[in-house]
Write the structure tokens for this entry.
Amino acid sequence: MLELRPNCECCDIDLPAEADNAMICSFECTFCRDCAQNVLLGKCPNCGGDLQIRPRRSGAKLAQHPASTKRVLKN
């Protein structure tokens, strides 16, 4: 189950579960689309993997499996 991290690890902008601008790698490192495209050039700085659009979870499934509240920020 995806963690659905609540923020961009680069700029710390909020990325709620329903965000359409969240990008992730295969390890669930999470970035906003702006940072993913313009700063990181589509590659995760942690693992080197490709960044893809994060799937959204909503409704009853989000209530049953809530998004993470633990913020991650890489300096």
